[in-house]
TrEMBL record:
UniProt source species: Microvirga aerophila
Protein name: Alcohol dehydrogenase 2
UniProt domain Alcohol dehydrogenase iron-type/glycerol dehydrogenase GldA: residue ranges: 9-176
Cofactor dependence: Fe cation
Superkingdom of this protein's organism: Bacteria
Recorded catalytic activity of this chain's protein: a primary alcohol + NAD(+) = an aldehyde + NADH + H(+); a secondary alcohol + NAD(+) = a ketone + NADH + H(+)
Amino acid sequence: MNPFTFQVPSNILFETGASRKVAGLAAEFGAKRVLLVTDKGVRNAGLTQGAEEALQAAGCNLVIFDDVVADPPWNVVEQAVSLCREERIDLVLSIGGGSALDTAKLVAYLARSGDRLDDVYGVGLAKGQRLPLLLVPTTAGTGSEVTPIAIVTTPTSEKKGVVSPRLLPDWAILDPELTLGLPPHVTAATGIDAMVHAIEAYTSRHKKNPMSDQLARQALALLSQNIREVCTNGQNLEARSQMLLGSMLAGMAFANAPVAAVHALAYPIGALFHVPHGLSNALVLMGVLRFNLPAAEKLYAELAPIVDPDAGNLSVQEAGRHFVDSLGAICRDCKVPESLAEVGVREADLSRLSEDAMKQTRLLVNNPREVAYADAYAIYSEALDGKSRSVAA
Ligand SMILES: NC(=O)c1ccc[n+]([C@@H]2O[C@H](COP(=O)([O-])OP(=O)(O)OC[C@H]3O[C@@H](n4cnc5c(N)ncnc54)[C@H](O)[C@@H]3O)[C@@H](O)[C@H]2O)c1
Ligand SMILES: [Fe+2]
């Protein structure tokens, strides 16, 4: 067995209604001045109300930063850091999707450590102290509440990651009630993102290990068994709970066995065309999985019966292909858009996308098969009119 290290947050609370318990958790840190990092969509949907009321009732001074936007740009992070310093904040709480949670992780780190954002992009460069940090996800999801990662859009429209154990929160607080109102298209895209985390962790080239494998398998089971239900019946609390648990387990898996080419090719689509992260993943998913098949067939065959129990009797070759097709069927059933053209990408954009994807070396090294510029171009090209989803393997 390969030696491995494994890092997760030290505390997790998973409970319906848990977001109303943040005041008690903030009190553990003696916090008096709390910064809530969120976005307007989440706040206007009333998802922060329970936590806000609980903190105010406990006598906390609450400062609100609700200017987070999807794929948070560097300047939004810097604005929130300034506010955090001006207000002499002593604890950062975030309620929201991956965009809010990632922003909050950096705010808690940069405000306390004094480091500059530009100096900490990459792996292990954030070594200072951070403010106490509580994270409450409202999507299922990025798993950001349990990962040491924050993704920022830079001034040159690249998506760059800060990766450091310092970004793991003091508490990950999971409240499935907060995900009940997630609209079907966001439910589908964020659910696919979580499935991709599990799949890419399971096939991750260097850091795949027995713990990430178990978590990835369990995550994929929970996510694939519940994603169709939550897309059609969003009020099903039990199915929403399974999705939130699945996305957290997938987060733990890929935090320790990093994601690869699906994410590397998805990031430029998000950065240049402002396509939601999960949808960007879904649009290149089939092309990347098919490209990976020659190298990852055995691993995909191992995952196939988790997604479809009928795949148990197939040969390795058949099961590998069946796995890819099963994911195509999930995307179709959940009405995820099929083509890059539908989100505004044109043929003339494919070379810029491919160039930017090749810059995601942090992720590409984890892919089971080496990806060259021409491979990236071919995958984007196939996805342009949605051919990659319909073409049989
Ligand atoms: N840190 C990590 O480990 C990690 C992993 C994967 C992705 N990411 C990053 O996370 C970001 C994507 O996060 P996301 O997919 O969670 O989406 P998001 O945070 O960008 O939110 C998408 C939209 O959904 C809305 N929303 C969120 N929760 C809602 C709810 N419960 N009800 C109604 N509306 C709701 C938001 O207001 C927003 O408009 C990207 O920047 C991506 O790069 C980070
Ligand atoms: Fe992701």
